[in-house]
């Protein structure tokens, strides 16, 4: 299972995932959308909460996990929701690390 894996170092020499690999890994995470921003494929999901405090707490959990994995997402915190977006900046695309961290986010959500 993806959430049990650890991120690996991903430098500019790493190869972005192929469309086929992305399609396969998308079946292992639930509710995540494959989006494209400025030509870069990304994973995005909005998590809903009853209030700002619960959303804030979740944001902090994601930040702690991201530091542990040394892989950092875009996080948008709003009243009652948190939108998380993963992609690998160094390769301007998706890497297995993005899917690992998406799966870990799902495990952190209440």
The number of helices is: 3
Q: Average the pLDDT over all residues and give the rounded result.
A: 95
Instruction: Round the Cα radius of gyration to an integer and report it.
Output: 13 Å
Helix-strand string: HEEHEEH
Within CATH, the superfamily carries the name Transcriptional coactivator/pterin dehydratase
| CATH level-two architecture | 2-Layer Sandwich
Tell me the layout of helices and strands:
Layout: H1 19-26, E1 33-37, E2 40-48, H2 52-69, E3 74-78, E4 81-86, H3 96-108
Antiparallel strand pairs: 1-2, 2-4, 3-4
Helix pairs in contact: 2-3
Describe this structure in words.
By secondary structure, this protein is α+β, with helices and mostly antiparallel strands. It has a single domain, classed as Transcriptional coactivator/pterin dehydratase (Gyrase A, domain 2), CATH 3.30.1360.20. Helices cover 35% and strands 23% of the residues. The chain contains three helices and four strands. The chain has a four-stranded antiparallel β-sheet, covered by helices on one side. A hairpin with a 2-residue loop joins β1 and β2. α2 runs antiparallel to α3. The protein is globular. The model has no long low-confidence stretch (mean pLDDT 95).
């Amino acid at each position: 299972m993806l959430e049990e894996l650890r991120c690996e170092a991903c430098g500019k020499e790493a190869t972005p995932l192929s469309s086929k690999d992305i399609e396969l890994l998308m079946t292992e995470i639930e509710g995540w959308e494959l989006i494209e921003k400025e030509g870069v494929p990304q994973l995005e999901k909005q998590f809903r909460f009853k209030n700002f405090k619960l959303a804030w707490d979740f944001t902090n959990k994601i930040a702690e996990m991201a530091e542990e994995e040394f892989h950092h997402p875009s996080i948008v915190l709003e009243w009652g929701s948190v939108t998380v977006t993963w992609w690998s900046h160094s390769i301007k695309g998706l890497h297995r690390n993005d899917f690992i961290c998406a799966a870990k986010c799902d495990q952190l959500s209440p």
